[in-house]
Each structure stands twice: as C-alpha cells, then as structure tokens.
Amino acid sequence: MKIAVLVSGGGTNLQAIIDAIASGKITTTEIALVISNKEGAYALKRAEQAGIKGIVISPKQYADKEAYSQDMIKTIKDAGCELIVLAGFLVVLPESFVNAFEGKIINIHPSLIPSFCGDGFYGLKVHEKALERGVKVTGATVHYVDSGTDTGPIIDQKAVYIMPDDTPETLQRRVMEEAEWVILPKAIDDIANHRI
Ligand code: GRF
C-alpha cells in the first residue's frame, strides 16, 4: 500500500512511521510521498534522509483553497497513494479534498478525543488545556478525517497518565513517545493488512 504523509513541522510522527516500516512493525506499506505545507519543515529533512520524495505544496501558492485542493488531489493520485496520513499537519483540508479521498485519510491528534480537540486545539495548546483543566489522564487518538475538525470515526486511542510536575512540554513529549508514535504506525499497519 502506497501512502502519502502530510506534515507541517518536526516530523516525529513521520519518523515513527519510517522507523516502523524499516523495523517491519508496518508491513506491505511504502511512503510514496511526503508533502509539507511549510518550506524548511524538519519533516522534509527526515524524508530526504530516508530517501523518500518530499515536496512543498502550500495554500499560499494558490489563488484560492480550491486550486490548492485540486493540485493536492492530483499530486497524491498521480503518486498512486491509497492512504493519506496527516502527521502533525496543520492545514484544514478543503471539503473537495476530503471527498476525493473518502475514508482514506487518517489523522493523529494529541488528546483522547472528544476531549481537547476541534478548532484551535493543536500542538502544545492541547496539553496546556489538559493541564489547565486538571485531568489525570490524557493521550492520543488516531481517527478518520471527515469534513469536520477532529470529528471523524475513531480508529485507536492510547492513554497517558499526567504526572504532578508535568509541563506542557514534558507532557507533549510523553504523549508523543508513549502514544502517538505507537498508535499511528499500528493503525497504518492494520489498514495496510485489512484488519480494519
Ligand atoms: C505534535 O504535537 C503532534 O501531537 C501533533 O502535531 C505535533 C507535531 O507532530 N500531531 P510532528 O512531530 O510534526 O509529527
């Protein structure tokens, strides 16, 4: 199964997928393409180091979101990708894009949806809100992408306990290490091997 991984930043979730394919934790899967909306995203460096084609397609390069969407759809289809993985990807994808790949787009979110998700909940802010609320357990969720924000069907979740001395940074790191980097590769392997 050929996949496209969409990124915006550091690419640690992309790295987890690369490493899982290399170690055999993910089988029958090839990352055909990494697309970043940001020039210079370290995720592109990770793709290059792994010998994977990485390109930049930014909404800013287009007259409107629809033109962006159509070029993204064509690029991904031309690469023969059957699954699209949003891994730290911060662009809200247009409806035409979601419709073009109905049921074939998955996302990793750094909380236990439906907590701390939706518009404005991304990156460190998710963990700041969890600490502010005083929850004892958080974690990460892999879900299918639909036309909403973090609203598609849930595929998998993994819980992470909050420690008394956690800061947003230490919590983010532990959620990535103990949850995101575990359930995202597993979801890809389950889809590639028709277990879900
Ligand atoms: C992380 O906060 C992750 O939870 C979210 O995007 C951020 C960066 O991820 N999905 P990555 O290191 O770019 O994969």
Question: Which key phrases capture this entry?
Answer:
7-stranded mixed β-sheet, globular, alpha/beta
Topology:
Layout (H helix, E strand, L loop, with lengths): L1 E6 L4 H12 L6 E7 L5 H8 L4 E3 L8 H14 L4 E4 L8 H6 L4 E5 L14 H10 L3 E8 L9 E8 L6 H25 L4
Parallel strand pairs: 1-2, 1-4, 2-3, 4-5
Antiparallel strand pairs: 5-6, 6-7
Helix pairs in contact: 1-6, 5-6
Bound molecules: 5-O-phosphono-beta-D-ribofuranosylamine.
5-O-phosphono-beta-D-ribofuranosylamine (GRF) binds next to helix 1 and helix 6.
Low-confidence stretches: none
Report the sheet-strand fraction: 15-25%
Helix-and-strand structural type: alpha/beta
Average residue pLDDT: 97
Hetero compounds: 5-O-phosphono-beta-D-ribofuranosylamine
Q: Report how far apart the termini are.
A: 14 Å
Shape: globular
Largest sheet composition: 7 strands, mixed
Overview of the molecule:
38% of the residues lie in helices and 21% in strands. With 196 residues, it is an alpha/beta fold. A 7-stranded mixed beta sheet has the order 3-2-1-4-5-6-7, covered by helices on one side. Helix 1 crosses helix 6. The two termini are 14 Å apart. 5-O-phosphono-beta-D-ribofuranosylamine (GRF) binds at residues 7, 9-14, 43, 87-88, 108, 110, 123, 172, 176, 180.
Summarize it:
The chain has 196 residues and is α/β, with parallel strands linked by helices. It is built from 6 helices and 7 strands. A 7-stranded mixed β-sheet has the order 3-2-1-4-5-6-7, covered by helices on one side.
